[in-house]
Amino acid sequence: MSEPIVSEVEAQINSYLTHPRTTGLAKTTRDLYKTILVNQLLPFCQLHSIPKLTPDLVDLMEDYVDFLRSNDLSAKTAQNYITVTKFFMRFLKMPLEFTYRIPRLDKQAWDLKHQRRWFSDRDIAMCKTHRFDRDHNRNHLLICLFCETGARVGEIEHIKRGDVNIEQNQILLRHSKTIPRTVFFSGETSIYLEKFLKDKFPDPTTDSFKRLFPGKNQLYKITNRMLAELGLKKKGDGRGPHTFRHFVATDLHYNKNMELTHVAALLGDTPETISSRYLHPTAQMLQSKIKKASGWS
After folding, report:
1. Could you tell me which of 260, 255, 266, 250 has the C-alpha nearest to residue 171?
2. What is 8-110's CATH topology?
3. Verdict on whether the full-model pTM lies above 0.90
4. Which of 80, 183, 200, 264 could share a disulfide with 271, CB 3.0–4.6 Å?
5. Positions in the chain whose pLDDT score sits under 50
């Protein structure tokens, strides 16, 4: 049986997907890149009889956008797909000078959808009082740490027994995509954490290198299942473990009046990133600010 013929475009895509720079990325990112390049870009090239990718692709980028949108992709998703395609072309040493700007109506629809994405104080209270059917102590502790530290899933996943300082209510996040740092938790969470450690990791010395929580995929499942049970998650709403990070940043800055530089230090990001991506003040927060600033009763 003869080997299947691989087109030059497929070979170019395979060279990118198998390159150490790509294989070193998180699995979810690798899967996304493969979906974009194999399921979208390759069929587009086949449709337009493009035998090999060259810098001339820039002349067809508007058609590529139309192709993506015709596959029921939102304008925001199409924009993300274009960005990944540009990463790929840069890898091929053929950078594309093309920018896709989301149409105004699509941007308004996106902004409105995301106004509904962020957690309220009531939502957080529901999460922190949820009763899990299995492994309640561990899972309750997980949610409390999301709500109080704003740590990323990957940071929580790598917490070890030796990283916890119960006396000081501190956890050292050694593994971070940005900055390893110390985070802090409440006295209430300290009670749950101390009981959990005594039950599951009784010997601080021999258990020092053991992780407190399961892997990232399981953490997503635990959190998303809880949100669904509480009526706080619907398909495609974007809510998940990372949404707690947005809440923490907004709460610290707007409700607790913490300076942006301090919020950034706690979350392991730059002030610019926190300001542009993580702050989502509610109408109530802004109303409180304007009342105080204006002296309104």
Report:
1. 266
2. DNA polymerase; domain 1 (1.10.150)
3. no
4. 264
5. 1-5
